[in-house]
Amino acid sequence: MSVVIGILFGIALEQAGFGSSRRLSGVFYFKDMAVIKVMFTAMITAIIGIVLSFRFGLVSEQAVYLNPTLYTAQVMGGIIFGIGFVIGGWCPGTAAVGAASGKGDAFVFLGGTLVGSILFNETYGLVKGLHAAEKQHISFVYDALGMPREWFVLIFVFAGILVFWCMELIEKKTVQKSEYLNSDFLKRFSFILLIAGFFVFLVSQDPSSALKNDTGLSRDISDVLPSSEQKLLSDIDKALDHMEPEELARRITSGQKNIILVDVRSEPEFSHFHIKTARRIPLEDLTEQLAPYKNLGMIVLYSNGMTHPAQARDALFRMGFQNAYILTDGLDGFINRCLKPVSLRSEPVPESIAAEINQWRRFFLATLPPSSMNNSASAITEGRTTHPGIIDTQWLSSRLDDPGIRIIDLRSQPEYNSGHIPGSFALNIESMRGNIQGVPSCLLPSPLLAGHLSLMGIRPETTVVLVYGEKVQDATLVGMALERVGHADYSLLSGGFPQWKTSGLSTDTRLPETAASVYPDTNQDRFSVNYKTVLSHVENNTALILDVRPEAYYSGEKSDEARPGHIPGAVNRPFDMDTQKAGDTVEFKPVQELKTAYEKIIPSKHALVIVHCRTGHQASQTFFVLKHLLGYDRILWYDAGWTEWAARVELPVKTGKTP
């Protein structure tokens, strides 16, 4: 069918005279305006046809692919295309028609098109920035003008008719000849277009104005809406587009991995408090950032109430998302129905439900300090005193008997033996690493990591608290292991064991007892990259490479690896610049201080960043800072790091203190 349509299209172009470059280029001399007239005829026909197809359900709007609007790239492309049109007198389609007619210049033009395409492909890395510089979105002219689509169609039809008459006048004036000016054909053609424009305008009006039939009785809205809109309204009417807070809590705490929980509120509100496992995505970025999850899993949208999530859900539905849901009653409803203490509820709560609520509170409030977890549900949103992913000694000391919490001590065996937090398990971080494809000290694959977690009795619903000694990166490295198997419920003890000891809290020398679990092997690693990926980003300048080794190793003044130096283009910020030490206690610097420092290095929260050190250990700390403390959402981790890069002689290396 496509071949037949192509042949017919070619015949139509030839009959219109577009097999001649002279006629095509005549538009630039105002002597032959056929190109403009044909273009407007095609645009008006397409606009009327597609809008009517949408209106009567012949074509689904979700089934139509639309190129993203990238103003800079498209303006540049238009300029290049226009220059080529002026010089050659052809565009690709008409050149094919001309070549079929034996026109020599058309063959030359097509040859140039082929060469240009090859050059563009080979030099794409140089111009890719034009494409990547803008946020991909789809923009409609009528939206930009702030008018309904049917009004735009009507105005465009009027404009098209005016263009047809003006083109005839121009030809009359420049070449003293006009084929259709004041002709019956042009008058009839204009009249038909007007009728078509008004018809589109009338049938595309808001269906709510058509809900009355001629008897004055209400009609079913399905009589006037396309099938896709019928489904949307039907889902809303039956509340099929909602997810109840209790259902969400059960799905998340049971370890269900296909829930994409999206908070559409502002950054300050999100930082103040959000549902655990949620990610913040501004309304304007939803389509782009959720594209990988289109019709995969369950996208659950929430805000404080339900207005903004409902708008977001409708927008996603119209972009073809069939898996977007609204959290009933929003964040306020989730807090009151799932996190409000049983003792404060006015109605009696069955014992089984009370146990479930307590489980939810342990899970969703695990990273909140005690000051945010008192006996008032509203107090949950009153603020935090520690960072997301970090808990303090007071919080932990009040929950030592909680069977849902597993404390992991990452200090050396002698240090652990001499005294540890009661109930904590010892873990040597090197047991989580091994030789992977010849590279030493890489994080183990998820099946082996799941085995380690099983031996300590950890389950997907367990809250894991990581306790370090002098090195925060010990805890963050184990955090990477947890994230690799999809275990998001973990926190670092602020200040580690030294802070626990300084606080005068009790310690123990007894070994804990627990039954082994069977932790599922669910590889959720979407953040680790290999040297090939890093090299590609270096060559195309599509990611910020962040080297967190000490400056002397970055510059090449010191080296413990096969070659000194750093990856070309990599920026250096040593990992230890993110922490501060008071006595024996090491902890992260204040978030605002970290935020200010990284804003000078990373252009935006959505920039693609690859962090690395020698073997991933130090880089895991920077990964934690950027992702969990500062909210950067595109952070990748090159685990093999400089150990692998330096050993591969084919990879480029640079020395010195500059990228």
From TrEMBL:
UniProt keyword Membrane present: yes
Matching SMART domains: RHOD
Annotated TM spans: 35-58, 70-90, 151-170, 185-203
Domain of life of the native organism: Bacteria
Keyword field: Membrane, Repeat, Transmembrane, Transmembrane helix
Matches recorded under SUPFAM superfamilies: Rhodanese/Cell cycle control phosphatase
Residue numbers spanned by region Disordered: 556-578
Domain spans labelled Rhodanese: 255-343, 401-509, 539-654
Name used for this protein in its record: Rhodanese domain repeat protein
Taxonomic lineage of the native organism: Bacteria, Pseudomonadati, Thermodesulfobacteriota, Desulfobacteria, Desulfobacterales
